[in-house]
Amino acid sequence: MTFALVGGLVVGAFFGAGMTYSLNRQRRSERRALGNVRQQDWKAARRAAARGAVPADPAVRAAAARLAVDQLSSLRRRRKLIVIVFGVNLVIAVVNLFVNPSLWCAVLAICWTLGVAGQWYLQRRLRHRVNLLTDDTHDG
């Protein structure tokens, strides 16, 4: 019990430190991409970078395009590592499914499959958003 508690605290501390670093880095990058856009327009720029109508305001539209480009480049940088990690976990889940056929193993295999497939979907969706947001012929 004590070993598990101490181990959990140590692992939790490392995980927390890693997540804090990662999220702070992501927020700094997002703020750079948002640039001079007024703070009340940040939500509209974030939404436009991911989905929805193209903003009519050129400043919000440009910020959304920069944000989508930043997200796309971040995804491209991490994609190999994520696909390897998710792929290995998928293989483990499938092997476990054959060794121990259970609903839990099937759910894990499906989740890891969706994670691997999601990498290609996200990249495709972000490329589409960048094209839409930077298209000069779009009337907003």
From TrEMBL:
The keyword Membrane appears for this protein: yes
TM helices/strands, residue ranges: 6-23, 81-98, 104-122
Record's keyword annotation contains Membrane: yes
Keywords, ordered alphabetically: Membrane, Transmembrane, Transmembrane helix
Superkingdom assignment: Bacteria
Protein name: Uncharacterized protein
